[in-house]
Structures are given as C-alpha cells and as structure tokens.
C-alpha cells in the first residue's frame, strides 16, 4: 500500500470517528428565562446532535420541573440519549426566582411563560423542533397552550402522560372507572357479580340466605383487596434508590426539594380553583398538532376517560394522533412502566 493511500485511509477513519463521537456527544446547558417578573431556571440535557427538544411540563399545580430528571430516571436514562429534554421550574414553582405576585399565578400566564421558553429555545438553535410533554397538570397547561392557533405553529407535537383535561368531571370519571373495573372483573370471571356492593342490597329474598351472605362477604372482601392493589399503582414509593436520587438532587443540582415543597404548598392553592373548573376536551377541535396520549388503566386520579374524550374531539388528523393505555399503571407510569413509556415517546418524536 502506498504512503498516499495509507494517509487517505487514515483520514477517512479519523473523519468517521469524529462523526461517531459528535453523534454520541452529550449536551448540557443551564440558563434562565425571564418574563413579567419571574426568573425561571432551565436545564437542557440530552443528545447534542438532535434538533428535537422535549419541554417537560410538570404535574402540580405548582410542581417543579427540574427535579424530574433526577426523580424519574426514565427521562435521563432512556429519552435523553435520543433527544434534548428541557426541564424548568415554572412561575410559582420549585426554584423560580424574581418578583411577582399571586395574581399572576394562573394558566394564561403560565402559557405566556411557556411561549417565552419556546421562543428562547428557537432563538438559541435555529434548527430546533419543539415538542411538549405534559404530566398530569402539565397536560392541562400543554393543551391549554395549544388552544391558541399561533402557539401551534411553533410546536411539532404534544405528548400527554396522565394529562388532566376535564378536572371538573373528576368525581364523575372516578365513579365511571370504579364501575368499569367491576364490570371487567366480572367479565374476567374473578367475581360472579357485584350486587353486594350496591346500596340497599339484601339477601332476604335469596333461596339460600346463609350462602348469599357468605358469598356477599367474600365478594366485598375480594373487591376491597383488589381496589387496595389498584391504589398501589398510584403511589410514589420512596425506595432506597429514590431517596439517594433526592439527596443527589439536593446537593448536586441547581434545585432543592425542600424549597420546591414549600413553593408547591404556598402557591398551588392559587392555581387550584381554576384547575378544578377545567373542561378542555370540548375545546380541542381546532388543534391540529400531532398528539400522543399515554394513560394508566388504573389511574384513579385522572381516569383514562379524559384522554379518550380529547382523542375523540381533537382536530389532529387520525394518522397523527395516538392513544396508548398502559395496562400495569396508574398515575405514575414513569415508575410502573418506564420502558413502554420511553419507547412510545421516542417513536412518536421520531415519526414527527
């Protein structure tokens, strides 16, 4: 092999290696977005080569966003290797600074702040394509933001995880979920019926009163135990690993869970009344952006019927909207089914 050919091959290998390293390079930035008195900390982490940014809208109301990269590893470990995740503490939440009063703590202002963040990202990166990922109350904010046609022009897709869209119907949907699960258990053959669960039920007219009473007691006990299992899907369990992640967040990040807890306790109440009146599913006909709805089958906080209503009413073309029910999850699919959640989010962003 001639010296010239050897040099050429060496250069080709070097170029390939540089390309490979750049494609795997990690991106980490921290900055602040200022808007109408609020100074909001923003952390962007993920794949340097990706032009796709996923803005995480946290639950709450008044829940902090920076903590999600630590408390829910699915975002950092499974999604960041593919795209850039954007975490921020909103007005009235977490470690947001500045001077503003409680009169600015409402959805409209959160939407204006979010729009400022979206525009900031696009001004810093002219190739940026922005997706919103709203969890619970973050789903409320994301959908509310997209009701404005001008906002839709800047968003390439909306991902909802247990999004709370029709909070005014929460009690009604919770009752509907109870009946759905009871019917499901009858269909599965786990119980014959759930007559014993109904008000006013009496074994007095049964052919075998003693057996009726025993069967009724057994049914009530089984259903009670089953609903206790359902609640386990909806609880955040502070395991040893979770505790270590919180400590790491406390001492080795810009955020602080203690400050975040104080902010949520103090400021969440200002958002709550407005949140409790939300009925968004009937207002989404003009929304056209791609949408992915992820909901736990056993979510007792935000039953999946809310996502079904949005899916049915939204103006997004059929081939650009998708709803996935996670069969082993409640309100915290980031913990109960992180792999399926990550796969669904990654695929959706890739397709759009």
Automatic annotation (TrEMBL):
This is Serine aminopeptidase S33 domain-containing protein. The keyword Hydrolase applies. GO terms for biological process: proteolysis. It comes from the Bacteria. Gene3D superfamilies: alpha/beta hydrolase. The lineage of its organism: Bacteria, Pseudomonadati, Bacteroidota, Saprospiria, Saprospirales. Coiled coil: none annotated. Residues 82-246 form the Serine aminopeptidase S33 domain. GO terms for cellular component: membrane. SUPFAM superfamilies: alpha/beta-Hydrolases. GO terms for molecular function: peptidase activity. The keyword Hydrolase applies. Keywords: Hydrolase.
